[in-house]
Each structure stands twice: as C-alpha cells, then as structure tokens.
Design a protein that fits this description.
The protein is α/β, with parallel strands linked by helices. It contains 12 helices and 12 strands. Helix 1 (4-18) runs parallel beside helix 7.
Length: 302
Amino acid sequence: MDTMRERFISSTTRLLAEDPRLALVLADISAEGFRPAARAHPDRVINVGIREQLMIGVGGGLALTGLRPVVHTFASFLLERPFEQVKLDFGHQGVGGVLVSVGASYDWPAGGFTHMAPGDVALLDTLDDWTVHVPGHPDEAEALLRRAAPGDDRVYVRLSLQSNEHGWPVDGARFLTVREGRSGVVVAVGPMMDHVMAATEGMDVTVLYATTVRPFDAAGVRRAVGHGPADVVVVEPYLAGTSTAAVNDALADVPHRVLGLGVARREIRRYGRMEEHLAAHGLDPAGLRGRIGRFLGAGASR
C-alpha cells in the first residue's frame, strides 16, 4: 500500500493536469516526486526552496490572481514557522487555498523536535473559517484532496505515515458511526481509528470515525449521545484536548463528561520510533484501553 504522501503526489499530479486553475507551491519537500508535474506545468508548479514564509506568501498571492494554490511541506514548517503569513496572506486577505502537510506529530522522530507538530490543529483553531481534514488512509486522503481542490475556501489536510488497515467512505463533513453501544461515545480521529477499535473491543460503546474535524460534526455527536447524561472520549493524533471545547459546545444543554486523549504537552526528547511515541503518549491499543476503561467505568464492559 502506498503512503498518504505518495498518494498526495500522484493525485495532485493528476489534478494539475485536469484543472488549469490549480497551482502547487513547494519548499523543497516532495519536490523530487513532483518533478514530472513541474516539467508538464512549469508555470503552475513553483518550488521556492527552504523559504517557508515565502511559500505561504506566494500561495496567497496566487490565490489573489484567481488560482487555487496547493501549498505543501512538513506540518511544522507549513503552519508553525510561517503562522503570521497563514493568518494574514490567506485569512486577512480573504482568499482560499489548500495546505497539505506531512510529518504529523512525530512521523519522523529522527528529524528531531523541529520536524514534529502536535500543536498544528490547535494553532489553526485560533483562526476562523478553516476546514481541517485528518485522513486515516491513503484512499481517504485522495478523496478529501479531490473534494478540496475545486473550491475557494481555506483547507488544511493533515497527512501521516500512520495509517489504518483500510479506508472508509468519508464525505468531508460527517462523522461515521462504526459501532453502537450504550456506555459512552468514543470519537476516533483519522489514523487513530484502528487503535481505538482494538482498544474498545468488547466494550459497550459507540465509536464514531472522524476525518473532518473542522467544522466539527456537532450534530453527529449529539445523535450518538442522545438525551444524556453522556461520557465522550475524543482520541486525536495531535495535542490532547484539541477538540474537547468543540464537544462541550455541541453538548452545552446535555449533562456530560469529556476526556481528550492525544499527544501530551510534555516533550519526549528520546526520539526513537513513531511506535514508541504512540506508546509513550498512551495512544497504542493497550494504553487507550486502560485510559478509556478507567474513564467510562465498569459499565463499559459488555
């Protein structure tokens, strides 16, 4: 199976051929994969080198001319380093584009903390009118990219090396109900889905699958919860608690408790491997089972 990044390269190469409005802006990352596209569309594939602030500025400028920019690099260099440009050159100017990241929270630990971005979605939450997609499989990444490409809105697509075994029929809006139960609701975001399913095996819980987290599917959570009182667990592959406020807003008139599971704020300085980071943050199946079970109590067991 190809990775999400590989699928992004092949899908965007086809989209550039299909849509003359589409333009791609790179900062060296993935430039080799896009070499054929650059030869075919030299005026719409732009590599600015390792100049991430310029990359965002060029993307915003292309949007002002009527093009649809796809801007791509590691998450830490796409959102954190050039955040002022994202805020001003897209948001303040009122133009749209598609920001596509790789690296996720700790996909390449050997690259060090400079290449980790567990706070990317929380940071983007400080701005308005951004759609955020977190696919959990290459098929979903392609579907969500194709959904984003023709629009005029602002979209962030967060790709990861971590992938579920198979893709789901995502629509870019609603959460999918994968399992129904009576003792709580667990929302699994993107690549956390397989781990959540393994962790909740035998538990009497509803599992929702989320690949589009902004806008947050408040109606889907309300349907899953019913009239309450309710316990909701959100398992996200980035900063723990990023979506707990969204759950609280969705259930403002329903008695409820929320547990946000994700990457801890504490920096892990022994970089190791991605799997070791998942375990260290309690995001492997064993860690999730213990934390979800303790939160939901004895009633969660079938």
